[in-house]
Amino acid sequence: MCGAVAVVKYQQEFLYQAKQEVEPLAKLEWEESGHPTTELDIDWESYLTLEDMRKLKFFTAREGDLLVGYFVVILGYSLTSKELLTASYEAVYVHKDHRKSMVARRLFKFVEDCLKEDGIHCVIASSSNMNPIGKFLSRMGYGEVETKYEKVL
Prior knowledge:
Layout: E1 8-13, H1 15-33, H2 44-52, E2 56-63, E3 66-77, E4 85-94, H3 103-117, E5 122-124, H4 134-139
Parallel strand pairs: 4-5
Antiparallel strand pairs: 1-2, 2-3, 3-4
């Protein structure tokens, strides 16, 4: 089909069902995010436990059956404002072949719409220094509220 445009579908799925598809993309995400002192060793048991407790939500971008992006959020109440239900981005990745299109923007928007519908008040996102997405987050309406630092002991 010459000139056909592939349609990307955005949906909420269960991580336990997509785990094998996520693993190769998670490795790419890890390499691009820059973790020079730590090896990737995903704690699937904790992820799946959180999903069973309904404290983890998993969203996908698929081109046909192919997973081209994912978004994982952890839900929780703020310890400083106990009525404030928040979602923290745990893992976000869109394959580099799909970054020039609107896939990332549409995935973020889809996730935000779903979270708002579920009564989430606030979303917390972060950006690595090696592969910064701060400008993208700003364009999406996020405001910078703190800077994180890390020291390897």
